[in-house]
Amino acid sequence: MTWSADLIDTKGFSVGGTDLFLRLAASELEKRQSHKTIVIIASVTIIGATLAAVLIFFLRRRIMQRGKREKAEGIPNKYNFEVGQLELQEPPLYTYDMLRNATNNFDENNKLGEGGFGLVYKGILESRQVRAVKRLSTSSGQGLEEFMTELKVISKLQHRNLVKLLGCCIGDEKKC
Ligand SMILES: Nc1ncnc2c1ncn2[C@@H]1O[C@H](COP(=O)(O)OP(=O)(O)OP(=O)(O)O)[C@@H](O)[C@H]1O
Predict the structure, then answer these.
(1) Counting CB atoms within 10 angstroms of each CB, which of 92, 124, 136, 161 has the fewest?
(2) Interface predicted TM-score (ipTM) of this complex, two decimals
């Protein structure tokens, strides 16, 4: 078919008309196909990047909130200190005040039991977590080195008959 009159926009006809089939060179169709592919790839990439950004945002916010909470509770994320040749890592460090508040100033009513090196109290942290707090008695004769050795050993032990070390407090005269 040859058309020699002015071009008409067929979208202008709201009714009637007939289907018009055009035969195109295969290369024309390939071009359209590749455009379609590019559009799909671009859309998937944009959606993927957006989802990743949202995920990273929420993860970062969660980590930051956790960091803030630990800071508020006086628990550093990680610490590493040395006493002589001893090195201890991982268990969180509690301040003496935190444990004193948790146990209501080491109240007799919160006493759970007594071991060779001191009394054990029930404590409730600000986060409402319940803990058994063992306070080293000054008369126990256990020095810093023995205390650190004990911490180092229990922090590495895991057994159903042993309580897990969840943290420690290492003040000058106040060790828990
Ligand atoms: N997690 C806990 N929950 C409840 N009670 C506890 C807990 N930990 C300790 N106790 C009580 O405190 C007592 C003394 O505990 P501790 O760990 O000091 O005992 P121990 O190992 O015999 O002492 P030590 O190592 O000083 O000789 C226990 O016998 C128990 O009654």
Answers:
(1) 161
(2) 0.92
Q: Would the pTM of this model clear 0.95, i.e. be above it?
A: no
Which residues on neighbouring strands pair with residue 122, listed in sequence order? 132
Between the CA of residue 93 and those of 58, 64, 166, what are the distances in Å?
Answer: 27, 19, 9
Tell me the one-letter amino acid at 145: E
Regarding the beta carbon of 134 and ligand 1, being less than 6 Å apart is answered yes
CB proximity list for 99: less than 8 A, separation 6 or greater: 123, 133, 135, 169, 176
**Residue 85, pLDDT score:** 38
Q: Is 35 exposed, middle or buried (0-12, 13-18, 19+ CB in 10 A)?
A: exposed
40 in Cβ contact with 33 (< 8 Å): no
Does 117 sit in the ligand 1 pocket, CB within 6 Å?
A: yes
DSSP 110: G
Query: CB of 108 within 8 A of CB of 128?
Result: no
Residue type, 72: A
Question: Please, what sign has the CA dihedral across residues 139, 144, 146, 150?
Answer: positive
